[in-house]
Task: structure prediction
Amino acid sequence: MKHLLGLLLVLSGSAGAFAAGEGERAEVKLPTFTILNGAETPTLDGSLIENSGSSRIHLALFENLLSYDPKTNDALPGIAESWSVSDDLLTYTFRLRDVTWSDSTPITAETVVDSWLRTLNPTTRSPYAWMMGMIIRGANEYTYGEGEVGPEVVQIRALDTKTFQMDLVRPAAYLPGMLPHSVFGVLPTHVIEQKGDDWTLTHNFVSNGPFLLKERNRNRLVVVRNDEYWDAENVGLGEIVFISSDDDADRYDMYLNGEADWVCGGIPAGQIDVAKNRPDYQASARLATYYLEVNHTKPPFDDVRVRRALAMTINRREIVDDILDGGQIPAVRITPPLPGYAPPDGLSENVSMAQQLLADAGYVDGEGFPAITILYNTSSGHRPIMEHVQARWEHNLGIMVEIKEEEWANVLARGKLQDFDILRMGWVGDYQDADTFLQLFVTGSGQNFGKFSNPEFDRLVEQAAAMPAGSARFEVLRQAEEVLIDEEQAILPIYHYADIDLVDTDTWGGWFATTLGVHPLKDLHLK
Result:
């Protein structure tokens, strides 16, 4: 596989200049930048994207109303050049630039309306529609409502060709930070209407971002600079090559061989200590959590004593120190460290108490406990963690555990059908607030694969969402997480991520360590 992938690569180029006649300006050839992007990208459809690798490609090809600041990941103007909010904080109005699609079709406020309604349409089955429903009045009624509920209930509108407006369910101070997310993508609906699901094929593809789709194969996707992009003069790359690979060792070797400019995480555990000494090693805390999701619809996982016993048998410190060794933080809760937010205590390792809880649930020394399977997506980095958990549960609780890996798309599909016992999951915050983690487990959330449901938890999350920013809101969020973790042990947290990348920031400018781990590709340039 290593050699096959190597044949598919395009080596990074460097900036140069063509000879120019006297009085002529030299034409600069912009460089090529190659990214080892992780798992294969399942889709380029912004309505359906649900992993970080696909989101990275979306940022190259599309621009939303708002975009990301490369240094802070706060919201910046995108195709909307400005925005305002009403005095009651419930209505946002956006003024659009004069921009077009790559086929020269104008982008209007009605394009935004049509795009968002398409994502919210129940037949689209967007996995992130719930995120839009958090804030847009009428969105949940349209997407998840029963009976004949049409798009007219969704409170978004075009006031004129350049003015888009939306009404919120409640005040949401974090709204601007959400809008660069791919689910709020502005899509070429005029092409989608003509081509249907084939609109993402390369020969049909139309976009509006800093780059255009040039080539897409199973493990390789290439984009080139969009000269018609409104800010094209500030785009520093001529071409980006995205290489997909699940094998951390292969990706690390490819980078060391000079076949790529950026490895997005996934350095092999045995190489971390060596990699740390490299000048191009980039490590920073990330707004993300790695956890196991239990299927609440299946016995014995519907018993909180069982869930607690499983959680309290995991040695998280050994995982982060001995297996990962990359700056990760042991996690006993879903929320990573956030300024101003004090999460609940959670349950740390306590084997004797775990054994007693399992006995109280009717499984003394594991007797009678059914054999269970941990399902995880293919990655050499996941397997040793799963083997550690497997060994801990078998040795300390006396239960039989199988670990099984499948492609990411299959893992997601089985998760949505509750076709699993325990599922390896990870979540990267979509905006810089505890709400982005707690919303995952609200009843009916599209990402709530385990089907956890608790009315008090739902009520508290809803209450916090309607509150202004501040310590009182953080306290309500803490109470919600206390229900989720301390009372219910709804999931089994493992660790909070550290972003580990290899990219030479002495050579490439515009790449900054951020909490969200988002790096807008339009800002990358050769120094």
Observations:
- Residues 439 and 461 are 7 Å apart (CA to CA).
- The chain has two domains: 2-247+504-526, 284-499.
